[in-house]
Amino acid sequence: MIDPALMTTAELRQALPLVTARDLRVAYDGGPNVLDGVDLDLFPGEMVALLGSSGSGKSTLMRSLTGFAPVSGGQVRVAGHDVTNLRRGELRTLRSEVGQVFQQFNLIPRMSVLTNVLTGALHSAGPINVAYGFTSAHRKRALELLDRVGIAHKAKDPARSLSGGQQQRVAIARALMQQPKLILADEPVASLDPKLADSVLELLREIAVQDGIPVLVSLHVLPLALTHTDRIVGLRHGEMIVSGRTVDLDAAKLAPLYSDDVDHADGFEGYTASEEVTPNVHASA
Ligand SMILES: Nc1ncnc2c1ncn2[C@@H]1O[C@H](COP(=O)(O)OP(=O)(O)OP(=O)(O)O)[C@@H](O)[C@H]1O
């Protein structure tokens, strides 16, 4: 290991996790733990897949990182915030620092693409008039981000007129508008065909690397996780039973995540990491 005293500030920043969860437990309404002793580190610049069958706790884990889950034990730190013990007003700051991308894009359909991206600024700017309250600097930045995600030419179009892949790019630009320290993407490609899914995940990975932030992405399609991420963590019944570098993992090593999931179990038969698409696995997305 390199002596920390010899590292530059930038190197130190890369080496420190932006997110740490230790022995994290979550229980809804006094029920059983749906997350049970989860440990997680997320480092700047890496794209990490979160896998697990339906109900294993993927969304709950993401919600725990933004203070939306009823944590019953353990610790969570995100970008310097102690999420389980936030000071007054700190929750808003935390949420403004975490960009979120969802399966259904969550755009305002009748508003323009540009306005949708601008709404990303509301997290830090507070309640301002959506139509007239943005500064020219906001608009300039939103247009730059649309250019970055490849759809600046659609800026004036209503969001509803865009394809699914384009809408997800708008949602990513909106998340970037927050200048996030972390991006959480909850099944961001589950509504897209495989080719668009590849391109959206490539974009997210590029952002992780170029902006030096962690991107945590939950996925249902194993080949996508094996192709597009640096690390994979996997939940089963709320416990993290897989955690490793993607290059060290394959479908066989990930199979225990889905051992009681009939759809995925079928999808593993004859699957190797080099196959681009496993129909049964895709069918369940
Ligand atoms: N608001 C809630 N109230 C009570 N139980 C909940 C709530 N949200 C989730 N759960 C339960 O917590 C467990 C984990 O759910 P979660 O949505 O985190 O799983 P998931 O892995 O994201 O599933 P999926 O892949 O289907 O989205 C499930 O048993 C679910 O029923």
TrEMBL record:
<dbReference type="InterPro" id="IPR017871">
    <property type="entry name" value="ABC_transporter-like_CS"/>
</dbReference>
<feature type="domain" description="ABC transporter">
    <location>
        <begin position="19"/>
        <end position="262"/>
    </location>
</feature>
<keyword id="KW-1003">Cell membrane</keyword>
<dbReference type="InterPro" id="IPR050086">
    <property type="entry name" value="MetN_ABC_transporter-like"/>
</dbReference>
<dbReference type="Pfam" id="PF00005">
    <property type="entry name" value="ABC_tran"/>
</dbReference>
<keyword id="KW-0067">ATP-binding</keyword>
<protein>
    <submittedName>
        <fullName>Phosphonate transport system ATP-binding protein</fullName>
    </submittedName>
</protein>
<dbReference type="InterPro" id="IPR027417">
    <property type="entry name" value="P-loop_NTPase"/>
</dbReference>
<keyword id="KW-0813">Transport</keyword>
<dbReference type="GO" id="GO:0005524">
    <property type="term" value="F:ATP binding"/>
</dbReference>
<dbReference type="InterPro" id="IPR003439">
    <property type="entry name" value="ABC_transporter-like_ATP-bd"/>
</dbReference>
<keyword id="KW-0547">Nucleotide-binding</keyword>
<keyword id="KW-1278">Translocase</keyword>
<dbReference type="InterPro" id="IPR003593">
    <property type="entry name" value="AAA+_ATPase"/>
</dbReference>
<dbReference type="GO" id="GO:0016020">
    <property type="term" value="C:membrane"/>
</dbReference>
<dbReference type="GO" id="GO:0016887">
    <property type="term" value="F:ATP hydrolysis activity"/>
</dbReference>
<dbReference type="InterPro" id="IPR012693">
    <property type="entry name" value="ABC_transpr_PhnC"/>
</dbReference>
<keyword id="KW-0472">Membrane</keyword>
<dbReference type="GO" id="GO:0015416">
    <property type="term" value="F:ABC-type phosphonate transporter activity"/>
</dbReference>
